[in-house]
TrEMBL record:
Tagged with keyword Membrane: yes
Signal sequence extent: 1-32
Region spans: Disordered: 186-206
Annotated protein name in UniProt: YncI copper-binding domain-containing protein
Keywords on record: Membrane, Signal, Transmembrane, Transmembrane helix
Low complexity: compositionally biased ranges: 186-195
Organism whose genome encodes this protein: Arthrobacter ulcerisalmonis
Length: 245
């Protein structure tokens, strides 16, 4: 009876550990993309977009990250990161573009390029933040093709999903956000809308994911140790019973 219970306990522990290992592997693959997390997505609002760089190219350190702005945007202000130098790349427009205030522009910022002062180790992550004004285009998805250059090789995060396709099914999807309805007419400093909150909740945060999976690993480890403790306890009881006889 005791041996049967021990075998069942060990089998359940092994199965749980194997399941956790598979889940960890899947989570690692899902969170490996260079992605973007907006603090808000309301149309005509000022937003901070955080681009996460979770790893290098295979095992090669990252040396440069070039973020291409979609045609719907005219400019973006890069946030200073002490680990990187940054420059704005401009392009000449084919014809003047009229803005909402009546003025016109002949150039726009097409790229923000961050260059690492010291190559970012492939096992470390960093975050690059852009400040910009979102256009008044509710329902529009803005794609930010991002070229990650490493000491050896590069990854072009520029794949755009087809209509109805899950971006996570792509090998190298471009970071993207979808513009939602504005919270108020001024759109500047307004409280986030329900859509913003739902969008933010749906964005995967690498740090939070890491803490969650670390907790799972700790739980599995505890289960394994508990199983061994149970086995040892049973063995001691059996030995004590034999001695008493």
């Amino acid at each position: 009876m005791t041996r049967t219970l021990i075998r069942r306990t060990l089998a359940a522990t092994a199965a749980t550990a194997a399941t956790a290992a598979l889940l960890l592997a899947a989570a690692g693959g899902a969170s490996a993309h260079v992605g973007v997390t907006p603090d808000k997505t309301s149309a005509n609002s000022y937003a901070l977009l955080t681009f996460g760089v979770p790893h290098g190219c295979e095992e090669s350190p990252t040396t440069k990250v070039a973020i291409t702005l979609p045609q719907e945007l005219n400019d973006a202000q890069p946030t200073v990161n002490p680990n990187w130098t940054v420059e704005k790349v401009t392009e000449q427009l084919a014809e003047p573009k009229k803005l909402a205030d009546g003025s016109s522009i002949t150039k726009r910022t097409s790229q923000i390029v961050y260059t690492a002062k010291t190559p970012l180790d492939h096992e470390l992550r960093d975050a690059l933040v852009l400040s910009l004004k979102l256009p008044d285009l509710v329902g529009t998805t803005l794609n930010f093709p991002t070229l990650q250059t490493c000491e050896t090789g590069q990854t072009d995060w520029s794949e755009i999903p087809a209509a109805g396709q899950d971006p996570h099914s792509l090998k190298a999807p471009a970071p993207s956000i979808t513009i939602t309805a504005a919270a108020s007419e001024d759109g500047h400093g307004a409280a986030a809308t329900t859509a913003d909150t739902e969008h933010a909740a749906s964005v995967s945060d690498s740090g939070a994911d890491g803490r969650s999976w670390a907790g799972l690993v700790a739980g599995v480890a505890g289960l394994v140790l508990g199983g061994f403790a149970f086995v040892r306890s049973g063995a001691r009881r059996k030995a004590a019973g034999s001695a008493a006889k």
